[in-house]
Write a structure and sequence with these properties.
Blueprint (H helix, E strand, L loop, with lengths): L1 E3 L1 E3 L2 E3 L6 E6 L4 E7 L3 H18 L4 H17 L1 H12 L3 H18 L2 H4 L4 E6 L2 E9 L2 E5 L7 H12 L3 E5 L6 H12 L7 E3 L4 H9 L3 E7 L2 H13 L3 E5 L4 E5 L5 H13 L9 E7 L3 H13 L19 H17 L2 E4 L18 E4 L6 H4 L6 E7 L2 H9 L3 E2 L1 E5 L3 H10 L4 E4 L15 E2 L2 E2 L6 H7 L1 E9 L18
Parallel strand pairs: 1-5, 8-9, 8-11, 9-10, 11-12, 13-14, 13-19, 14-17, 16-17, 19-20
Antiparallel strand pairs: 2-3, 4-5, 6-7, 7-23, 12-22, 15-16, 18-21
Length: 498
């Protein structure tokens, strides 16, 4: 059986631990490989190597680092099919969705290619008599990323391209459920010319996470995952005097106004709720039907959910793939059972889906609840599966109040033809990322990704200029030079980078 190991110092290593995890193909339900889980000693050794690599890497001109990013971009494009297949084989999402997630990661690499411009400081002449002042941004040192199973390429690429382009060295701890993509990305970075030790992958579980949090030489930690773990990461990083950006869970709403393009709203909801089998922190898992539009909304949704084509990710006809593990499948089915117990109307039941030839796969069909109430757990908690809840409210104001009172504030959307409603919604909603007639409001790489309330711990969002600021420390210099002998030596060659 294939054994997935660590990538440290520019090569595959085994480490010291014999502890292993199981990696499944969600489409078949079969275990296809094992992953070695690192010990604290393994993590600490990787940090030593990364710290040593930082000494030279941090001194490289930003243009040099940018050129490696350009080469890395080319290699991702060249190897996109292999990377996509790795995502499908270990996570289960359909091929085009997996390819799309890789593209969103690639956009951050493209953003990092502009690092010489992005790292420019500010200059003020004569802040005092013959006194100048300027600022610069310098790298932190060794930084780490802890990433979730649902986006094995995209989320790590929200972090490390910016971090290493800024001059840091990086330790990635990917999800042990789908680790292969991270190893391939490490190999491509090496091929692009990245020096050994600048980017390292340590596979592991909670032991590795705690080792990251407790290692004094790791200066910053980036995390994406559930809210309880995000809070744990945040508290322990702060306790150990590390910078931290910790993105947590979500319960995203899509408000359907009576005046909206209903076909557009329904199509948007289908993709946002059931794409990637609902395993997205930006999944729109609650539809808020305002006024009298609820009956028609549920009727149209029901027909589309019932017709949803569920199958293996490599099947071109599949619109939705399996869930990532059997345990997660059982968890999602448990939430559907709970919703029925709580009194919600299960308009479409996908629990009994069986696919011929894939009977052991981790499949569930799309589920649709109607008449959900705000007191129900299926409304309050993140299910992270293909389960859409419809809440019916009378007014726009009630919808805004409902969303603002929820503990999560990651993403939200509204479908309306009314510009005033859209503008008021965007201004008053207590959510970090807002869409107006856009179902999944994920910002482009040159903006920043992050929620509000219990969807983000720390004060920094991912990528964009927030990422640049997070992975650098600000230094401000004030200088005065005494008058002296001015040099008259001339140079007659074109000035170049030395």
């Amino acid at each position: 059986m294939k054994l997935i190991e660590h990538f440290v110092g520019g090569k595959i290593i085994s480490g010291t631990s014999d502890k292993k995890g199981k990696v499944f193909n969600p489409a078949t339900g079969e275990q296809e490989s094992e992953v070695r889980l690192a010990s604290k000693a393994d993590l600490d050794q990787a940090v030593i190597i990364a710290k040593k690599a930082f000494e030279e890497w941090s001194l490289k001109p930003s243009l040099h680092r940018a050129r490696i990013m350009f080469k890395f971009k080319e290699l991702i494009e060249k190897n996109s099919d292999e990377l996509t297949r790795l995502i499908v084989s270990e996570h289960g999402k359909v091929y085009e969705d997996a390819k799309g997630s890789l593209t969103r990661g690639l956009e951050v690499v493209e953003f990092a290619c502009g690092i010489p411009h992005l790292l420019k400081g500010e200059f003020s002449e004569n802040v005092g008599t013959n006194v100048d002042s300027w600022s610069m941004r310098q790298p932190l040192g060794v930084v780490a990323g802890i990433t979730p199973f649902n986006f094995p390429a995209m989320v790590p690429m929200w972090m490390f391209p910016i971090a290493i382009a800024c001059g840091n060295t990086f330790i990635l701890k990917p999800s042990e459920k789908d680790p292969s993509c991270s190893i391939k990305l490490a190999e491509l970075l090496k091929e692009a010319g990245l020096p050994d030790g600048v980017f390292n992958v340590i596979n592991g579980d909670k032991e590795s996470v705690d080792a990251i949090l407790n290692n004094k030489d790791i200066k910053a930690v980036s995390f994406v995952g559930s809210t309880p773990i995000a809070k744990y990461i945040y508290e322990n990083s702060a306790k150990n005097e590390k910078r931290v950006q910790a993105l947590g869970g979500a319960k995203n709403h899509l408000v359907v106004m009576p005046d909206c393009d209903l076909d557009g709203a329904v199509n948007g909801l289908m993709g946002a709720a059931y794409g990637s089998a609902g395993e997205r922190c930006m999944a729109q898992s609650v539809a808020v039907a305002v006024g009298g539009i609820g009956d028609e909304l549920v009727s149209r949704l029901s027909k589309k959910v019932e017709a949803l084509k569920v199958g293996p990710g490599m099947d071109k006809n599949s619109e939705m793939g399996p869930l990532v593990t059997k345990d997660h499948l059982d968890k999602v089915k448990g939430y559907v059972d709970l919703g029925i117990e709580e009194g919600a109307t299960l308009s479409v039941d996908g629990r009994n889906l069986k696919l011929q030839g894939y009977e052991n796969g981790f499949y569930i069909g799309g589920c649709l609840f109607d008449h959900v109430k705000k007191e129900m757990r299926i409304y309050k908690e993140e299910i992270f599966g293909p389960v859409l809840s419809v809440i019916r409210l009378k007014t726009f104001e009630e919808a805004v109040e409902l969303i603002n009172n929820h503990e999560y504030g990651n993403g939200v959307s509204i479908y309306t033809r009314d510009g005033d409603a859209g503008r008021t919604f965007a201004s008053n909603i207590q959510v970090g990322m807002v869409g107006i007639n856009v179902p999944i409001p994920v910002p482009m790489a040159f903006h920043s990704f992050g929620g509000w309330k219990r969807s983000l711990f720390g004060d920094s969002a991912m990528h964009g200029m927030e990422g640049i600021k997070f992975y650098t420390k600000l230094k401000t210099i004030t200088s005065r030079w005494p008058s002296g002998i001015r040099s008259n030596n001339a140079e007659y060659v074109m000035p170049t980078m030395k």
